[in-house]
Sequence to fold (270 residues):
Amino acid sequence: MIKKYALPGLVALGMVATSEAGLLESWSSYMWKTEQPKPPSVKVLVVKSKPGVVLEVKGKYKLYDPNTMEHISTRFVGKRRYMQALSDGLRWGEQFPGIYQLLIVPDENGTTTLIDGVEYSGSLYVYDVGGKISVVNDVYVEDYIDSLLTGSGSGLMPEEALGAMAIVDRTQAYYAANNPKTAFWALDGAKVGYEGHPNLPKSPRVENTLGTTKYMVLTEGDKPFNANWDNASITLDEAQRLGAQGENAAQILKRAFPSAQLKVMLSNTQ
Fold:
C-alpha cells in the first residue's frame, strides 16, 4: 500500500498526512464534502489515417459538429456501423452531408464505444483528414492511467514503484493536455501505450494505486511538467528496485525528480 508522506497539496487544504489512514480518511472526507469540477481529461489519438473503421456506441449518445459545437442529434439506442470519409461528408451507416468531423458523446459515464473491436470510455472525435479517418479519444485522466497500468502488466511491480509510475504518467498527461501536440490531440496513443478501456481484471495493486494516488501529480513552479522516465534521474528499473527495498512512492519520486513537488490537482487546466 502507498505509505505515509505529507503532500503539499493536502497541506494547502489543511490536511497534513500524519499517517496513511489519516491521509486517506481526510482526503475522502474532503472529496465527499466538496463540489468537484469535471474530472481532468486528455485527448489521445487512437486511429490515424485509416480508410474507415467499424465504430460502435453501446448506449444512448449525442452527436455534435466539433468545429462549431452545433448539436446534430441525440440517439436513444446504440449503433454499430462502418465509419468512412466520402467526398461530400462522413458516412456512418447514414450520410452527414457537408460534415467532415463528428463528436460522439455517450450520455452516461458507463457507456463505452468500440473502434474495430477496441473499447474506449469517454468521447470520440472523428475527423476526415485527406479522405482518411482519424479518431481522438477524450478520456478522463484517471481512466487513461488505469489503461496504462493495467495494459502494461505493471501490476506485478512493487506497489510503491507502481504508485510512482502512476504519478509520473498522470503528470505527463496533465502537461500534455495543456501543451497539446496539435490543435486536435495531446498524446499519440500508439507511442504512449494507450490501449483503450481495459477489459482485463484489475489487479488489487493497480486498484489500490489508482485510489491512493488519485489526482496526485509532480509540479515545478506549481505546474505539471513533461515528466517521464527518460528525463528522470533514475530509471524505472531502479524505481522498482527501490520500491522492493522499502522506499515509498514519495521517496522514489524525490530521487527521480529532485526539484519537483507532489501536489493534488483536481483540474488539469492552468
In short: The first strand starts at residue 41 and ends at 50. Residues 8-38+141-264 form one domain. Residues 233 and 255 are 7 Å apart (CA to CA).
